[in-house]
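Q: I have 435 residues here and want to know how they pack in 3D. Can you give me a structure?
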Amino acid sequence: MDRDPVIQTLGALAIATPYRSRELRVRPARRIDLVAHFSGAFDLAEHQDPGHAARVAYLAHRVAEELGMGAEERNSVLYVGLLHAAGISPALDGTEADANAWVAERFGLGENVQEAARAASERWDGRGEPLGRVGTDIPLEALCVSAAHWASEYSDHVDHPLRARANLQRANGVELVPLVGAEVAGALYEVLRGDETWLALFSDDPAGMVARLGVGEGKPSRRRVEEATAAMGVVIDHSVREPGRALRVAALARAIAGQLGFAEGARDAIGLAGHVLDIGQLGVPRRVVEKPSILTVEEMELMRRHPGMGSRLLEHVPGFDEITEWVEQHHERPDGRGYPEMLDDEELALPARILAVADAYWALRAHRPYRPAHTAEEALDILLAGAGRQFDAGVVGVLPEALASAGDVLTENGVALRDDDDFRLQIAELPGADD
């Protein structure tokens, strides 16, 4: 199908004008600010309400304080608490405990955090998983988190701190010592006596509360935001079984915005949104995400919840206000037949339209159990056929030039992400990756 030059030029210029001079910059933040809020996605994978991991991290930090652990160790406790169930979702070789450590490594956390995250399900009496470590062979950070998680079992899903406290008073504390040892158990009970503990556990913003406890990470920076968001994208990719997808979507969306004349700050923000576009899918049942055939109506409805879940996970991330809106809208359509809100053309943000096209292009280029991958030409033809209805015509019109301008970031095989140095090198080479 030939591309209509009117769609490619006049339409693209008309819709992009407000973003050319608009000042939109990614707000600097620390790694803990991002990880604390991203942990809500791991809560969904654990079948918990968002905020569970943050509450575990907070309570574990208080236990660490009671034990007299230093600032650096307490910071490690926060991260282990936030990531204690992060390994549930990614599809990796090895155990869930190994996956916990893998996620910690993706976020650039040190070996001490990785090791403690790997030991988050070990028990003092040696009956834990996966290695059956005993007593002091278990990192103290992991024991603090285990104690906090035990307490959360009695306080989560309760609507009032007094009721939660009563639940714990009725709990059989005898089971706690074999789990974490007498010293850590005693520290937990001491912490639970304080009123401030219970008030904090019922905070309206548990992730923000935990982030404020983090120390020793230096000044907030845009580089930290970009690295942490890209790392979350890698975790999402391994959870939805398509490694490399987030980087491809982010790079293509940023290139499209460049073709439309967006200012650099807006391009940066759109790229960040591309990395976490599918964060809400961690809350979709695995049987649906992994289904090797076309989804039923009921399963499709479950899948259609993910933009809304994603926006709720991101809404309190520092500086992500507009990104949250774009993530929620990335499956909306100009003709008003999208989801989740069936927005009409005037309500749909231009960055969300860009992300929709970038996301759809790479979905078409990927192999699916029910169809082979489309070629680049076939994918472009499908998008052009939907221009003006399913996809914004002006955005589709500049797609070929955007694909060309993205250069080495977008390879024909779709940027097969690798680990460690190769991954970090690719992130560093992305346009706008400087502080």
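Q: Anything worth noting?
A: Residues 5-9, 412-435 have pLDDT under 50 and may be disordered. The two ends are 42 Å apart (CA to CA).
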